[in-house]
Model the fold of this input.
Amino acid sequence: MKPEAATTTITDVARLAGVSSATVSRYFNGARVEKREAIEDAIAQLKYRPSIVARSLKTGRSGVIAVIVPDVKNDFFSAIVQGAESVATDDRMVLLVNTGDSREREEKALDQLLGRVDGVILAPLTEDEEIPSRFRELGLPLVFVDRVTTSGAGVSSVIADNAKGATLAANHLLDHGHSRIAMIGGPLGTTPGRFRAEGFRDALSARGVELSGDYFIESDFSEQGGYRSMEQLLRLDPPPTAVFTANNLMTLGALRLLRARGVVVPQEISIIGFDDIVTAELLSPPLTTIARDAFQQGALAMTLMTRLLDEGSTAFVEHSVVDVELIERSSCGPPGSDDSLISATRMFDSADAESIHKEKREK
Amino acid sequence: MKPEAATTTITDVARLAGVSSATVSRYFNGARVEKREAIEDAIAQLKYRPSIVARSLKTGRSGVIAVIVPDVKNDFFSAIVQGAESVATDDRMVLLVNTGDSREREEKALDQLLGRVDGVILAPLTEDEEIPSRFRELGLPLVFVDRVTTSGAGVSSVIADNAKGATLAANHLLDHGHSRIAMIGGPLGTTPGRFRAEGFRDALSARGVELSGDYFIESDFSEQGGYRSMEQLLRLDPPPTAVFTANNLMTLGALRLLRARGVVVPQEISIIGFDDIVTAELLSPPLTTIARDAFQQGALAMTLMTRLLDEGSTAFVEHSVVDVELIERSSCGPPGSDDSLISATRMFDSADAESIHKEKREK
DNA sequence: TTGTACGCGTTATCAT
DNA sequence: ATGATAACGCGTACAA
Done:
């Protein structure tokens, strides 16, 4: 007597209800049916549940749309997902898949998902992937969010106004009187990494400040990357008096190193981040950032997806850009005196870099 | 000339390669095949991709396991997901679905997923749901994570040692000399909500302090809930000198209200949270919390799932408990003088409650 | 090792 | 409105 889920099928229901399987099928699809009570009884009695796979195979649709992001742990991406869910129509469900910044896993996810979902909202790992063509071949709707690929001109997308954000950051720092300005950037192979770097460099340059080699570090959008990059920056001679950290995680890492080193913000160094952090105003000091509405960005992406789905896949292409704004709190100030910062940071060597949890406040 | 994805099937490949479809099928399943080069050529030429749905329908398996959580935006849950992914075998992919704390959406997700996945790792919304039986009927492996249902005795689970955590928190506050201790708890209908409340109450009581009615607030694990509850607590006469906030989001909300009110922690009020916050040590002041390894908790859940899948669904049941620890930072101190806190909080009325972004530091 | 033939559970077509 | 039946694309006895 094995409990073997001896799947009861639509035929079983039909037989018990005294109708044909076609009628039961119609019943499920909302058609008016004569003996619907008998059918409902049979369903209840047999505890019948339609097989979604069989249905998918037959109809070619699944009612699922996937959102693929590099890192669920990053608040920004989870906000995107929530935004997408908020405007998804009731007859569709959204699945989230995390690629963990791994090309291999992104590849695998795509492989597994194609044919199983009706559409994909994707934040690609890098810009050089040949993704759009695969979707075109399958006639599967695709929307890029936050990031695009270089071959993605024909693909709808929703990205942030990265250049404007970077410009805002640059001017904010400049306005405070800084000239030794550094940037911890994301991978230049990603859309936000590239545009934020270019935008920042250009904005600085427009006001006569160059972002010299040592003052720009191409990092990886991770907290550890921010931590290490900031360490590297502090070791420069002279170190920068202000730095722009190009995403939330790197900002956190940078802040962590600063705290470990006893460097006080903004007296000794000014920090401005990109992407808001949930606890930004509770930090010490409250963090000044370039923010955008990630929730809305996700919502927009899903809206485009819905149109794609409803109007036919190849119907239209739209590139949306969501606005960014500067949220001024208190992590930026005028440049401090060089001596204090330099002497404070000289006390440490790189072996100290891994003590990420060390908490010292005394200078 | 419509680009209509005129799905090429295994039969097309077979024909072009000069073999039968069965052979191509076998080729895909790793069998040794005579004309495998011809097959590979045909596949490449036709750009053939096996239909995962058809395969699923036939085999009854999908190679997918779902992780269903109430709130992806909560770092704790995303850490669980990452943990689960970290130990998932290569031939399985993990999908994340967010129920957004909505019973309806949880229900829908379950409906949509059953039959489409090989297993589910679930953090149920409340304890009173009749979920296990549905899975048993389908013979579908289920593992509870972080939360269980009361009817879930026969279901493997991985939860935190909530009672111990609550006890740690209580003793920490007591050791600092507090006696007017309050708690902002989660819904008593959830596992962590219930155990943390019971544990805290018991630990207090064991040392002669009662958690009186006004001092316990059943909130909802949300940031806004924490904000409102803290507001309510401050209005009490006398207000508590210390409070235990039962999850990360509520802690944040509480902190936010405190800052808006200009109440300084820990001088005027001590705070201890449950669940670590990524930025905990960067907060002002660095937050003391009861923490656990959420990543490991997710990993454990997936490990159980893997055993369930490999050894047969009904093979075994295991209830794991992950340890918690007190991370002492600086948000707890001795009770302050009553007068300062009371007079500070009396200046505001409830209309002020919504000004969540107000940032005042002066007292 | 290979091919034939059937079935997985559902929906869609075509009569009735 | 209903029934019979043919797909949907694949895996797998079974026999060769």
